[in-house]
Write the structure tokens for this entry.
Amino acid sequence: MSKYIFVTGGVVSSVGKGITVASMGTLLKSRQITVSVQKLDPYLNVDPGTMSPYQHGEVFVTQDGAETDLDLGNYERFIDANLTADSNVTSGQIYSAVIAKERRGDFLGGTIQVVPHVTTEIKQRFEKLAQKSQAEVIIIEVGGTVGDIEGQPFLEAIRQMRNDVGRDNVLYVHVTLLPYLNSTQELKTKPTQHSVNELRRIGIQPDVIICRSDYPIPEEAKNKISLFCDVDREAVIPLPTVSTIYEVPLILEEEGLGQLIVDKLSLKAHQPDLSQWQELVSRLKAPHEPVNIALVGKYVELKDAYFSVREALRHAGLYHNRDINLLWVRSEDLERDGSDALLDSAQGIIVPGGFGIRGINGMLKAASYARDNEIPYLGLCLGMHVMVIEFARYILGSTEPNSTEFDTSTPYPVIDLLPEQKEMENKGGTMRLGNYPCQLVDGSRAANAYGQSLVYERHRHRLEFNNQFRSLLEKAGMVYSGLSPDGRLVEVCELANHPWMVSCQFHPEFGSRPTRPHPLFRDFIGVAKDILREGAQPPLPFSP
Ligand code: GLN
């Protein structure tokens, strides 16, 4: 039977609860304990798929095609496992399921209530993940902070679990923030005490409190939290802000969290082996020569909208012993004249995924800049559409080629909906989602990167390369280096007469791992690092 760790948040959101949960997974895995992770999102959306990236950040796609919270990306990167739809549960999913059962007549005669019907539905999701994953420990993160109205059924469900599976099989971890007051120059513990009081009010006594802080936490603050919150002194774990998220497992290990979990849950554990992780962090912290990569997107004000892309670039940089100097370029800014200056130090240009017409002209400009100046270019999903439209415009000498996402009456719909997509009425969950196979063409840059001919990658899109234009673009130098096995869909394309301009219809960023960069990102940075931009030339050889 699986044991459970429930993680709640207090005081404020965005203190890194997701990274803390992911790091606990790393600590358990390093002791050869099997682990799976689940995120509970209290909002009423069924999934984040229809939410704006400004609201929610990136939508992370699992191999089985679920559109999920970006924390799942961190879980995957930290425990190096591929999760499924079962790892993200929202209030929207829970209520839809309960109401569907009610309409079907499953509860005939009964009054449907939050307790027990909604809480039972929630607990069934815990059990389903435990059954399917067969993991020894399931870590479950409750999104938001204690006290949120929407979160209450989830908190009640995790409270009930203590009786359902026995108190020795559950552990409650509360992650809080200790704010710093400049005037008195001290860290305040009172908000933590209040949020623990709120937890206790609903019947949950935390076993471990993890204290996030921008400053070192003095002993007396830890003692105070231990006393007022009734938590063992060694179970008050300080977690100061660190320069790289990959350091968090090491800090938590140093503070004894790994052993504490093992003891409290009576787990059978091996000695922890975090050597790979230690090596990763010392390499990440060592200074390296930077490589300038411009990320041209429409949501760049919110960096979380491109979380996995940024991480995948970082992993690839590390592989080549380079720091990634990410230049965030708002695509709309590129639409202005003279905007080339925004790209003139870029050694590589990346155009990531996105939806809607805003900023498209700026992205097209970035693609033509990359093609003209022979700057390495990596297009991801929308970034591939942009590369195809730009190339078609260039060879036809016309601004008419377009995607029907942006112009339904273009005479050159080089990117278009598949016939079956045209029939769809609903927006949520109706895209081409999750893993699909892709056959690579021998000798292409894509095939060279992967070193294999059949790969599976994660998708999230509606529109596709329009096959009517295949031969036209091919004659001008576009290579279709990855196709669906039936040959019908273009999955990867590249330009023959360019150092490295490669785009894919899928999202390779989701599969990149800190110690195993994705091959396309790896090769993109591999070429970009050797590109010299103006002002960066090595000195000419001295000749007297
Ligand atoms: N908007 C495009 C489509 O729906 C691209 C999607 C994406 O970049 N994820 O096909």
